[in-house]
Amino acid sequence: MIIDSAEVIVTSPDRNFVTLKLTTDDGLTGLGDATLNGRELAVVAYLKDHVVPLLLGRDAHRIEDTWQFLYRSAYWRRGPVTMAAIAAVDTALWDLKGKAAGMPVYQLLGGASRTGLLAYGHASGRDLPELFDSIRAHQAQGYKAIRVQTGVPGLKSIYGIASNATYEAMDGVRYDHEPAQRGSLPAEEDWDTRSYLRHVPTVFEAVRGEFGPELPLLHDAHHRLTPVQAAQLGKALEPYDLFWLEDVTPAENQEALRLVRRHTTTPLAIGEIFNTVWDYQQIIREQLIDYVRSAVTHTGGISHLKKVLDYAAQYQIKSGMHGPTDISPVGMAAALHLGLSVHNFGIQEYMRHGARTDQVFQQSFTWQDGLLHPGDRPGLGVELDLDEAGKYPYVQAYLPFNRLADGTVHDW
């Protein structure tokens, strides 16, 4: 099974996606997701100019050898662009192998460890009534676990609040459930940590009062806190029994999580912007986190993220794979196959793509009673409609950024 051609496809049905399509000499095709939100064209160039020429003529069955070749032969290792490109190749090769075997990828990974994958959705609101409406709407869609993001008094627009003005596209239409905006410059948002720390515990008190103790609740601090502030927030939220508190502080400083861990028992989810097992080495070994947040798309593909999760399993740390709409349906399917197979699955982030995206990427995974399943089609179970994809060319888009009241650029 020799790789005969490799094509990099950029399409923007509801947002920008980068897809690698490999075709073998016996006519099989495999897809990989290489989307890097806000930096998509950097990965396109890396794939087209550096990776694709190395793939032609290679044996598509040699997944591990190809991964090691692409990682080690470049000399310049790691980083989101490199690892997203490698992830696309790796995922496409797993798709090809599944199709060649006539089996879904999860069967090649050892078979199912469960019947379905618990998923959480994103509820948000500028105030409590709007937030409560959003939680109820997600429950009506079948979600059994809910991430709660809220507006903060005095701040005009912050991450995770779908109804905020900065979450609208240039034409006034919301840009596919996420804060990326189409336009030539990123949107500027405001931030005040003290206001946030005062407000968030009162929100969770109200949510628990309204929805009871059984509903699993999650929250994303989005790297905005210092270690001391993160510890304060984790401690303040302990009475509300969170499923997890995500990205409380920039995790590049991994020693900082020791301080957070000493002061709160609130479970921690870290790693959305990590790319390799080496990013996780210390915080897994020292048991400073409870959930691995990486996406297949940004962490070297199925092969490498499985190694991260196998390492984490030694310390009773579970998966919590990144799965918003800046992960394409191809990347989402890869996460579902991996999550179904590993023993230490925790929960899967799941945001529904827009109707145009679902036309471009035709999917086999199912959503029923709060559980996801990748389906049993051979490979990943996703097919790309090239005619539909061609209707939606790339559109420049950026994630927003933060400034404090005095004008200082802050973590976003």
Automatic annotation (TrEMBL):
Single GO MF annotation: mannonate dehydratase activity
Pfam families: MR_MLE_C, MR_MLE_N
GO terms for biological process, alphabetical: amino acid catabolic process; carbohydrate catabolic process
Superkingdom assignment: Bacteria
Stretches assigned to the Mandelate racemase/muconate lactonizing enzyme C-terminal domain: 128-267
Matches recorded under InterPro entries: D-mannonate_dehydratase-like, DgoD-like, Enolase-like_C_sf, Enolase-like_N, Enolase_C-like, Mandel_Rmase/mucon_lact_enz_CS, Mandelate_racemase_C, Mandelate_racemase_N_dom
Protein name in the entry: D-galactonate dehydratase family protein
